[in-house]
Amino acid sequence: MRVILVPSEGRLGGTIRINNTRDTALPVEMKFFRRVVERDGTQRFEPADDQFTVFPLQASVAAASSQAVRFQYTGNRTIDVAQAY
């Protein structure tokens, strides 16, 4: 999944559709992490839940069904460098 947000232009959110192709319910919990790539190419992930609002935060997607999840970035609107979440 790729969503490009541009806070300085007001592009702050989007919708993710979760499709459950299983024959049983799929429990889902949304978590946000900021991806940090180090100079040596290794990467680490920092919790970033405080920079997003999401609804619903948790869901149970019924078998052979789907669930829309809306999210909005609520962090700093003046970002100097691209960030990955």
Describe, in plain words, how this protein is organized in 3D:
The protein is mostly beta strands and 85 residues long. The protein contains no helices and seven strands. The protein has strands at residues 13-20, 26-29, 33-37, 43-47, 52-55, 58-61, 65-73. It has a three-stranded antiparallel sheet, with no helix packed on it. It has a two-stranded antiparallel ribbon with strand order 2-6. β3 and β4 form a beta hairpin. It is globular and about 45 Å long.
Q: Structural class of the secondary structure composition?
A: mainly beta
Average pLDDT works out at: 93
Overall geometry comes to globular
What is the total tally of β strands?
7
What is the rounded Rg? 15 Å
Helical proportion, percent range? under 10%
Order of helices and strands: EEEEEEE
Largest sheet features: 3 strands, antiparallel
So how many helices? 0
Distance between the termini: 11 Å
Strand order of the largest sheet: 1-7-5
**In percent, how much strand structure appears in the residues?**
over 45%
Low-confidence stretches: none
What's the quick description here?
This protein has 85 residues and is mainly beta. It has strands at 13-20, 26-29, 33-37, 43-47, 52-55, 58-61, 65-73. 0% of the residues lie in helices and 46% in strands.
Topology record:
Elements: E1 13-20, E2 26-29, E3 33-37, E4 43-47, E5 52-55, E6 58-61, E7 65-73
Antiparallel strand pairs: 1-7, 2-6, 3-4, 5-7
